[in-house]
Amino acid sequence: MPEAITARSWLFVPGDSEKKMAKAMQGPADIVLIDLEDAVAPENKAAARPMVRDFITANPEQRHRLWVRINPFDGPHTLLDLVAIMPANPGGIMLPKVYGRADVERLDHCLSALEVANGIAEGSTPVIVLITETAEAMFRTGDYKGAPRVVALTWGAEDLADSVGASANRDDAGRYTFTYELARSLTLLGAAAAGVTPIETISADYKDLDALRLRAEAVRRDGYRGMLAIHPAQVEVINAAFTPTEAEIAQAQEIVDIFAANPGVGAIGYKGGMLDRPFLSRAQQLLKLAGRG
């Protein structure tokens, strides 16, 4: 089973535009999410599939960054997507609009057969799952512990609004209303329970980079480890927001060193306050995130 992934920025790019795929790959996104779902009109999906396969095949050195969002199982395109793209051995798969863990297990069976058929190590293709896009899935956000192939969970608000019949998912101030903040929280908790990476959903206003920065910094404080992007301009902002600063690293190292110098101590004084073991754990996690642990 693949391990949880460390990736800050996940940039969507339409799978029917070789020019946009190439531009995204040449940029700083940690993951390029080549989209065969919402970004490709139904009449263009058949032409997009071989385009995506050929693009990944032509860039083997970047394959680990080139993931594909396939179409969901509640439509006619999923197996056609997988049969077309798996010969290229993409870096990973995004599964949208799930109804629960059963969809992930179904995807695992499909991928195993296609991996074997294409000479790819069975079980080696990792998966990120969009776990809040249907009302039913909201009740199953804690079910992904041990789910095959899953390395990350993320959430979406637009399809969820459609699923519940909402006319909007934000209030007059532009903030997500309760149901969608609940989706964000349940995704974070579900990822923590599963031991996989939580990834924040998109910011649709790609021109407001200050708002993007504030939101990305806020969700990182909450525990998110990366964010979806819909425009190349968002990527560097996201990368910076999810990269620990030198000040954060220095403080975390200081906390780790204090506990190391006082073995067996459960709590210790620090800058006028008290630190206990959860502070040590968070410091260790931050150093690991920064590549220092």
TrEMBL record:
<comment type="similarity">
    <text>Belongs to the HpcH/HpaI aldolase family.</text>
</comment>
<protein>
    <submittedName>
        <fullName>CoA ester lyase</fullName>
    </submittedName>
</protein>
<dbReference type="InterPro" id="IPR015813">
    <property type="entry name" value="Pyrv/PenolPyrv_kinase-like_dom"/>
</dbReference>
<dbReference type="InterPro" id="IPR011206">
    <property type="entry name" value="Citrate_lyase_beta/mcl1/mcl2"/>
</dbReference>
<keyword id="KW-0479">Metal-binding</keyword>
<dbReference type="GO" id="GO:0016829">
    <property type="term" value="F:lyase activity"/>
</dbReference>
<dbReference type="Pfam" id="PF03328">
    <property type="entry name" value="HpcH_HpaI"/>
</dbReference>
<dbReference type="InterPro" id="IPR005000">
    <property type="entry name" value="Aldolase/citrate-lyase_domain"/>
</dbReference>
<feature type="domain" description="HpcH/HpaI aldolase/citrate lyase">
    <location>
        <begin position="8"/>
        <end position="232"/>
    </location>
</feature>
<keyword id="KW-0460">Magnesium</keyword>
<keyword id="KW-0456">Lyase</keyword>
<dbReference type="InterPro" id="IPR040442">
    <property type="entry name" value="Pyrv_kinase-like_dom_sf"/>
</dbReference>
